[in-house]
Write a structure and sequence with these properties.
Layout: H1 3-7, H2 11-18, H3 32-53, H4 59-75, H5 81-93, H6 98-112, H7 119-129, H8 131-140, H9 146-166, H10 168-173, H11 181-187, H12 197-217, H13 226-247, H14 255-268
Helix pairs in contact: 2-3, 3-4, 3-5, 3-6, 3-8, 4-5, 4-6, 6-7, 6-8, 7-9, 8-9, 9-12, 9-13, 12-13, 13-14
Amino acid sequence: MTTATRLVPGEAVVLDRASTENFSVASLVLGRATRDHLLAIYGFARLVDQLGDEVEGDRLAHLDWLEADLERAYDGEPEHPLMRRLAPTLRAFDLPRRPFLRLIDANRRDQEQVVYRTFDELVEYCDLSANPVGELVLHIFGVATGARIALSNDICTALQLVEHWQDVAEDYGRGRIYLPAEDLERFGVRPGEFDGAPYEQLMSFEIARARALLDEGAPLVGTLRGRARLAIAGYVGGGRAALDALAVGRRKASKPARALATLKTVGNGR
């Protein structure tokens, strides 16, 4: 076993995190087979984040190892248990490599870039760090089209922004600032300043921007049926509930709030 495989999280950690993330894939309404395939993708995404955010040593080298293990998952026998879990899903759905590689590239960028000058720069980062997950989910449900992937990208970018706005102080403690520098300057907020009227105005602005992007992608729900509709509505509803919580100063939404927002999204189809 390599150093990297000893340092990454095991399956139990992934399952635990699945119940709390905005990209939750553990809903029992999806059925066991679909849930297992989605959890395999989620496990990969968490594995990438762990290697890029938390392991000690040369993180770029760890990410290189993961890219090699991804190739083994497609063509041979991968090393890590989460990658072995992913391999049957890759083959069953003939999943493209590119979304997985983009997730790895996002974490490579994290090793080199810790500040984003503009909102457009941040959205470009989200295209690597979040959008591939939504694309892969659509492939699992057999509903991936160019139009749907475009709507999914809006949803996933919005959800990534939600996570950044939930974790502003935590990210700052890690030396990363995802609030665009141009917005900090516009509202007169210094990096590391997490209270006061200017900061509240800044966060209201960022919350509204994420909400608008989520609403742009939400019509994706109306193009889907069955379990795919429920799953995507869960992501959209969970994001809306999280934004509502942030708007009143709470970091996370309650489970009842997420469930209610999901039901409304399923019914409205957007």
